[in-house]
Amino acid sequence: MAGSRLGQWLCLVVCILILLKAEGASIPITIVESAASSGALCLDGSPPGYHFEKGSGSGIDNWLVHMEGGGWCESVESCVSRRDTFRGSSLKMEKTMGFSGILGSKQAANPDFYNWNRIKIRYCDGSSFTGDVEAVDPETKLYFRGGRVWQAVIDELLAKGMQNARNAILSGCSAGGLAAILHCDKFQSLLPATARVKCVSDAGYFIHGTDISGGSRIESFFGQVVKTHESVKNLPASCTSKMNPELCFFPQYVAQTMRTPLFIINSAYDSWQIKNILAPTAVDSKKEWKDCKLDLKKCSASQLQTVQDYRTQFLKAVNTGLGSSSTRGLWIDSCYAHCQSGSASTWLGDKSTEVGDTKMGKAVGDWFYDRSAFEKIDCPYPCNPTCVSVDSES
C-alpha cells in the first residue's frame, strides 16, 4: 500500500515537473563564458547571462530578444551597492526563470510569438547596456561594460541561428525598454537585410520632463549615468552628432532619427516616472507627495492636476520623438502601472487592460505582422475600467 502511494506521488511530481517545463517555468540561465575575452562583464566582473527557450515549427527562424529592466546606477557609490546583487552579478542571479506575457509559450496566451526563439537577457550593468570603461579601479573593482555585455550576448545568439532570422524583435521593460530603443537600429543592422525587424519598448519611454520644483532632476541623473559608464560611444550616433550626447539617453531625442519600426507600450501615468521624474523625493522635502505617489486616488485636487499635466508632457514627448512615422506603433494606457508586457494577465488575458478595445498582445502582433496599424492613446485617468495593477521592472 505504501509502495503504491509512493509511486502515485512520484508520478504526480514527475507530471508537475513536465508541466512546468512545458509552460516555460524552468528555463535555465546560460552564462556567456566567452565574454571575458572581450571584457564583456557584469559590474562585479562575472560573465553575463540570459535565458533561452528555442523556437519550434513555424517559429524556428523567428527571434524575440527581451532585455530585463531594473533601474540604473549613476555613481561609483550606487554601483558598488548594486555590484553584489543580482542586478550586478550573474553569480547572484536565479538559475532558472519562467517566461510569460510577450515571452510566453502558450499559443492561446501569446499566439503571434509563442513558438519563436525567445530570450531574456539578464541586466547586470546598471546602464541600459551602454557602458564601456576600459579601466577597472582596483579598490571598487567595478566593471562598467554594459555595451560590451549586450554585444557579447547578441553575438552568441547570432551564432546560435539568429544570423538567419526571418523575423526578429528587440524588446525590453523599463531600463530594458530604454535599451530596446537605444540599440534598436544596431540590432537591425546585424540581421539579414531580408528579415522583418522591429523593436518594442515597454515602460522604457522615459521623458525629459519637468518635476514639481520646475527643474529636471532626471536630466542630471541620466547625465550622471552616461558620464559614470562612459555611455556616449554606445548611444546612437544619429542623435549624439546633433545634440548634447547626454540627452541621447532620452527616447524622445533618439527616436527622431531611428530607421527601425518602433512600438511603444507605456502608461501616460507611468508609476516609475510619476515617482522619479515628476515628484522625486529629493525635491519633495515636506513629503507632500508621499501618499499620492503610492496611490493616485490619494492625490489632492491640485496634485491630480499636476499629474494630468505630466500626461500632457509625456504625450508631447512621444509626438516629438515618433512624429507621424508610418511605422510607429502606440499603445498608451491611462493605468498607474510600470512594465505591462511581461505577465500573461496583462498581455492577452481575459481581463487584460484594453486601449481602444484592444489588448496589447493583439496590438503588437497586428502591428508587427502588418495586419493593421495601431496607434491608440487612452483617455485621461481614471477613465479606463480595465486597468490591471502592475509595478515591476522585469
From TrEMBL:
Pfam families (alphabetical): PAE (PF03283)
Enzyme class: hydrolase
GO molecular function, one term: pectin acetylesterase activity
Cellular localization per UniProt: Secreted, Cell wall
InterPro entries assigned: PAE/NOTUM (IPR004963)
Alphabetic keyword roster: Cell wall, Cell wall biogenesis/degradation, Hydrolase, Secreted, Signal
Enzyme Commission (EC) number: 3.1.1.-
Residues making up the signal peptide according to the UniProt record: 1-24
UniProt record similarity statement: Belongs to the pectinacetylesterase family.
Role of this protein: Hydrolyzes acetyl esters in homogalacturonan regions of pectin. In type I primary cell wall, galacturonic acid residues of pectin can be acetylated at the O-2 and O-3 positions. Decreasing the degree of acetylation of pectin gels in vitro alters their physical properties.
This protein's name: Pectin acetylesterase
